[in-house]
Model the fold of this input.
Amino acid sequence: MMHKQKKNLLSKRFRTFYPVVIDIETAGLNPITDALLEIGVITLKMNSYGWLKIDKKIHFHIKPFEGSLIHKEALSFNKIDPFNPFRGAISEKQMLKEVFKIINQGIQKSKCSKAIIVAHNATFDHNFIMAASSRIQVINNPFHSFATFDTASLSGLTVGETVLSKACRAMGVSFNNNKAHSALYDTLKTATLFCKIVNLWKKIGGWPIKYKKTEKT
Done:
């Protein structure tokens, strides 16, 4: 068992990166000017046999930052009322403090070097997280500054689908369209999808990589 645990460390799977699944809901498409309204975060773990699984779940509603823009068409899409007093929303600063604390603890525990965002169309989520981090000038941002794992691309490769709902169903993951565009729900489905893809690659023999030695000429 000790041999299996040592061989299947999470830190050995993604070049010492600690994968963190994220989904956000926003008041627009511009990460610099538009409000960040909701975030779902799921950390991952690996068991002693090398199978990737969901670990911790975090979810926050977020207050629009001062001076941020809020576009009606975005709110019509995600059905969020940013000023509803019953949202229990917190500031960007408090949200990032809580999220980064948990992620940095996970990095340390798993002996990884840095976190990497896993998301569906990951550039969008990454840009908003980095903009918020810059806005409040946090010094402990655990995420890689530009690299991400995009489940849209991975799903396109694996099952020929890039839409989250279709990719989930193609991988045998149930998806309720009526619950979509809730950050926590979409994060859970994205995390499940990512684990399915990574574990499928292992199941069919793609990991660990077995290199064939080439003859010297």
In short: The radius of gyration is 18 Å.
